[in-house]
């Protein structure tokens, strides 16, 4: 075999190997890639302003969905503060992200209570609620667990619930799951990738 031909074959093999080792794969996200789920299709609730909402209302924006309740002692305020800081890190691109807080405690989380809670973190955040059945259906679609603990009859209870944020791309597709404890910087970096069309 002539030297020139050997070099051509070696180069072709090298390019094929690069393809096999993943050099043409998509971006590497910090959070967990869950692309392919249809979770967002089930989201039909009412925001704290009294307006019915679906994911279609936020077309063109990245959407972050978090389940919780306003009396949560630690996980919910920590997560919402993280999201506030992540959006601050995005600068002007923060206007292209919508945070949705889905209450799993409709008995105590009135629209007024939810509105004040969102205001404490970011006035642009929206809280969503509905009937027990509506919330249960959305939680089931998102595979979210929640359960009351304590004096339920007396209204003095806590709620164990899934802690983490579901992130949708501007095209409305489910893309990522950010576990509780993620840093604002890592979440902001992933949001930047999604907003760039990755």
TrEMBL record:
The keyword Transmembrane helix does not apply. Keywords: Copper. Pfam families: SCO1-SenC (PF02630). Residues 20-196 form the Thioredoxin domain. It comes from the Bacteria. Belongs to the SCO1/2 family. This is SCO family protein. It comes from Uliginosibacterium paludis.
């Amino acid at each position: 075999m002539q030297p020139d031909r050997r070099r051509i074959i070696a180069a072709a093999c090298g390019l094929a190997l690069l393809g096999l080792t993943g050099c043409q794969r998509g971006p590497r996200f910090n959070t967990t890639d869950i692309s392919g789920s249809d979770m967002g299709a089930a989201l039909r609730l009412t925001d704290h302003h009294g307006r019915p909402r679906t994911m279609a209302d936020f077309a063109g924006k990245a959407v972050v969905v978090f389940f919780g309740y306003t009396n949560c002692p630690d996980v919910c305020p920590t997560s919402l503060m993280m999201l506030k800081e992540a959006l601050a890190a995005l600068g002007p691109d923060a206007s292209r992200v919508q945070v949705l807080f889905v209450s799993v405690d409709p008995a105590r989380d009135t629209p007024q209570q939810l509105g004040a809670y969102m205001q404490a973190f970011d006035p642009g955040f929206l809280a969503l609620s509905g009937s027990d059945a509506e919330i249960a259906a959305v939680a089931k679609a998102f595979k979210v667990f929640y359960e009351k603990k304590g004096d339920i009859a007396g209204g003095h209870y806590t709620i164990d619930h899934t802690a983490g944020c579901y992130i949708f791309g501007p095209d409305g597709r489910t893309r990522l799951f950010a576990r509780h404890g993620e840093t604002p910087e890592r979440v902001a970096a992933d949001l930047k990738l999604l907003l760039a069309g990755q």
